[in-house]
User: Fold this.
Amino acid sequence: MKNLRILLVVALAAALVATLLLVIPGNKQNADGTRLVVLLVFDQLRGDYPSRWQSKFGPDGFKRLQTEGAWFSNCHYPYANTVTAAGHTSLSTGCSPYKHGIVGNSWYDRASRRIVNAEGDPKVRQAPAPPNPPKDETALGVSPQRRLQPTVGDVLKETNGKAKVVSISLKPRSASLLAGLIADLVYWFSNLTGGFVTSTHYRDAPHEWVRRFNSERLADRWFGQTWDRDQRSLDYDSLAGPDDVPGEGKSLGFGRTFPHVIAGTKKKLGAEYYEALAATPMGNELVLRFAKAAIDEERLGQRDAADLLLISFSSNDPIGHIFGPDSHEVLDVTLRTDKLIADFLHHLDAKIGKNHYAVVVTADHGICPLPEVALKQGREAGRIVPNDLKKAAEGFLQDTFGKSDRAYIEEFVSLWFYLDDKTLAVQNVSQADAEQRLALWLTKQAGVESAWTRTELLKGMPTDAVGQSVWRSYHPDRCGDVVLSPRPYFFVSSYTGGTTHGSPHDYDTHVPLFVLGPGIRHGVCEDRITPQATAAILAHFLQISPPAGSEAPMPDLLTR
Assistant:
């Protein structure tokens, strides 16, 4: 009996110590039992897809998120340049491009007189290096060094060094811009190696388990296989539209209709095949397998600290670009995304345990319908060819301010015109006058809704809704002098087929936002919200402060 009392006292003391450890910030798992916090980003998963095709989903994917979690069905990005780099950075920092500085996938750097990538870093290299690197090896350098605000991962590592921050994607910009500057594992898929790679910003060589994963050559297993409809019993025509639609792209060796052979344009293993693979649901499957391996090998959520796992599934994006949102292909990848979510949640259930993890699911942007589809629906729509618009704008400036051997327009990228200040000086033209004249001329061009100048945006946020979204995309050190906004169902692109995104219109700004985790109020919320709230939500589950630049608070409707 005495021994029993001693054991009981010891057990109670141990339980008290464990309880204290749970509530001390930065020690053990979080007090609510959350061991792993996960962000799933599906590149270009438009906000209407989960409701549009809800009846065709299984019970354990989107429907589980909808019934066991919170679904914010009216979630919109508040800025204009809705592209991948800006979206992923906004999710991880909680703020818009005017603050975090990632104003596009690329922009013109006046200091170096070249277009730079958002994730580009010439001081680092890909690891492992490809066997046949391109002539400009600096194109392989990847890091988040151009980002101007901290991420959730940065805060977590500063708060608790034991916690792991892991970021995975097919795209280097998605993986690096979601992650923190000192993330533990950051990997993306390389078309040059056919495996997952990192950057010397993070480590000089891949982890041993990543090397083993790559040695299995999983990506090669789909070579020559066929991508066809996943659920052939469904009437894809009634759910999405016809399979063969004018305006769909014919790239990467794919035709316009199912089935699609996955072999690339050269019909051999290599960069062209891997690019084609990424434009099929099998690209997402590859990322899923790698993410599961990361959970298992790194024991994420199974250690003495709550970890952060960030996964961006990129394949939805090229599929949408090529075939458009009203295609059999986009419907198919969305149905497969539903199954992927179910598979991933089952893996977390088994490895981490229900109520011991939290998952946020969202997207980085939407997508514009094919102009041909919009025209058939009675809308005005079209493509604006960037080189043609730049040439016409240069001609207008030459006619307005006098002929010059030196161009007035230094560069046109991400809808921004960068004027050459030296040309303006030689021609004795004021910067403000050149901006104003060009902006007025742009508003008279087919497919252009409005235009703003640097001078106007520096004065403060405009009063109209579109102008405000443009202002939130503007950073004075990186943006140009005049920016345009296309009319609805128009876009600026060199694509002769397919479609794109990057506007302030609802089809580009609307994305889903689901939150599943301990203490979350279940149900649908139709109140308007921004995806930047993701940063605060992740911080909430990790029990850390949101990033310093975060602007969107934790939604009140989330907690019970």
Q: What stands out?
A: Confidence is low (pLDDT under 50) at residues 1-28.
